[in-house]
């Protein structure tokens, strides 16, 4: 566990759990990456400018003028009933059949993560998480003093045999697992998607070991090929707690997400939400409700998909043409992220300041591992910059990586590597 900072005069007063609250790698980088001359491939900000802002603005204005007494009032801790009905309609696109009564509206999926961790985790409890995992989830897990045990991913998502081995080992050690946390579709940060065959295997293994699954799915509707993947929750309603969000399909600034949970868990979540925030913002919820009821939201999601697909293509083409030999990367079929593996002996964390000096930013892989590994990796986001900027960013990045390779070759592998945590594709990749 991290030590409290020596320069903080309040150190001796904090609760033990505050020791796990340390700034993420992304936060430290954001200040520098925000400078206009830097091409930021770091943040996962959705491109909200693609929304019809005038129409949304008019809709919100009418909402306040017409229903202000409701819109600006407190609401219920569970969230607006009609919005929860709409949420069930959205989830049905991924094969989920749910009752609005089992949905809790949250302040983004991030708050859903917080509430779930709060109700399930005592200090030292084990959470299984993909290696790499979403940095915001790792932050939440650390703040509740969970013991995160990683399970490797490959290009087909979480590796079932590794999950089974990890569960067997933990059982032998007499340690129980509270839940498996997974982003099965268009994963953040790896950009990979759990195949259909593996979905069944993962659920089977979790049933065998009686482990709950937290399925975090903010990108599920942002696929570039075919129909949306069937959610894990669609096939095991009693085992899977599902997290959704309007951050990527409408707008992240609204801060509206949700959790769908088995009925008894839902009741605990509502109580936890009540003590955390009383109720989610009525203003945001009714804006989302109105948007879903009056605006062509399915068409808008299609537009987002096209926009992100064009940017994904720009990034993959540029990587292909410009990156030096020895670098590999994933090829996402949806979502926001490409995960790059650098040649042996390079360290993406050590390289980050040099990249910033060359006016390109990314997130070093280490932020996505609870165990300090991931040095050879970096996350690149293609969601926000225009395609021309993406290409320029990759050109700059490729130059930085070439310099690092030269340095390594001159000084004999001085730049550290460490375990990668990300394995080559397994035999069951389809
Ligand atoms: C995997 C994952 N889960 C949760 C979140 C949090 O999303 P929200 O904006 O709904 O809180 C994000 C945001 O990027 C994410 O990538």
TrEMBL record:
GO function term, MF aspect, one: DNA binding
A Pfam cross-reference name: Aminotran_1_2
One BP annotation, GO: alpha-amino acid metabolic process
UniProt KW keywords: Aminotransferase, DNA-binding, Pyridoxal phosphate, Transferase
UniProt cofactor(s): pyridoxal 5'-phosphate
Gene3D superfamilies xref list: Aspartate Aminotransferase, domain 1, Type I PLP-dependent aspartate aminotransferase-like (Major domain)
Family: Belongs to the class-I pyridoxal-phosphate-dependent aminotransferase family.
Protein's recorded name: DNA-binding transcriptional MocR family regulator
